[in-house]
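Hi, can you check this record?
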Amino acid sequence: MPRTVRAPLAIVSVFPAIRVMRHLLDPPFTSWLFPLAALFLVSGIRALGSGVPLLSQAIFLLEMLGGAAIASRLLGASLNQVRFFARFMLFSSAVSFVGGACGYMDMARLLGGGTLASAYLALVLDAGVRVADGLVAFALGARPLRLLRIVERHRALLEQRCSRLLRWLARVGWALATLAGFGLLAPFVAMIRRALVATLTWGSLNISLGEVLAFALTVWVTFLISAYLRFVLEEDVYPRLQLAPGLPYAISSLLHYVVLFAGFLLAVAALGLDLTKVTIIGGAFGVGIGFGLQNVVNNFVSGLIVLFERPIHVGDSIQIADVQGEVRRIGIRSSTVRTWEGPEVIVPNATLISDKVTNLTPADRVRRIDVPVGAAYGSPPEKVLDLLREVARTHPQVLSAPAPLALFLGFGESALRFELRAWTGRLERFPEIKSELGLAVYAALQAAGIEIPFPQREVRMRREPTGDA
């Protein structure tokens, strides 16, 4: 861009930046925005009048004096970053003034002009980032973005992530522009390029730092993409679809593995390895895996079967041998079951396929509650059955269909045996509902005067006759 075009554009850009920043900075710093703007205007005028060397030199010396005055006043700031910049600005302004006065204008312009240009750019970028933050917040609060569930539930998080990304981009841009202002960008890029292409040779393997960084960056981006896709699916796609229980988790898990596998292939390609050699090495490893890692492969395949077939889902209550609890995670090798006592049990996926597993959470989310009851002999059975049915009907979390059932099971040793069978769809409260039904049955029997007997035994003592008798 020609200097006659670049300088007016730079002059125009400072006015909205000052207007934005004077409302956002603390009062002690606001008063120095206008002197900085004045220096910027003087710098633009100097760039336009560069054809007159003597005039350009005089304006530059005045500009350095103004920069030194501003830097000396900023030395009393409370922020360490501001004091550091003020010291550097004071040093560069003084050196540039002395160098310009002695006729070393190229060196003086490089040091002093680069410092002031870096300060102006930081001011403009900071104002631009703050305006962009406001635009992002406005966009997330307007239609159609605010209708998305992901925006409705995580708006603050999205604004924070966007603001962080904008600030990192602004910092990188400021650093590159500052290096360019001091004439260091080209040497810096050349140094980085030489470091990246430097190779490490080990036998027939040649690898460079750039390839290692490309591998690490590809793997990192792969994990980010996988996490973002699963986040969008779980927050904004699955709630809008009528999917079977456990299917969203299976889709997210499979998508995660597919993205990771594709990313690993790209990372290996970025590393510069020949995929044909990787295939040969993989075949050799396959033989060893077949013999030494049978259990790992078995659990891996079993995990895929569990995800595809979905005999159990995350959130189901299951019982495997003496382990009973809730399924918290279905991994590629093992699954995690949290027992009712609190500890988590790691169950190999092969166990879920080969052993008998009791799923206490049926597909229709309905389970029966059995409450055994004993009544004393002499109690009217019809009245006891009516009381049991009434207790079940009045409980708010007992289903009316299937209807509660009260049964007379027979004659016990000490009591008439009854049982209340009721169905509930609140599986997460199954123990509490069973306890509440038991308490309600006891209270109803007590109110009706029906005795709940305890086991009784009749002991007869017989005296054996003695020989004297």
Notes: The chain has a mean pLDDT of 79. The two ends are 137 Å apart (CA to CA).
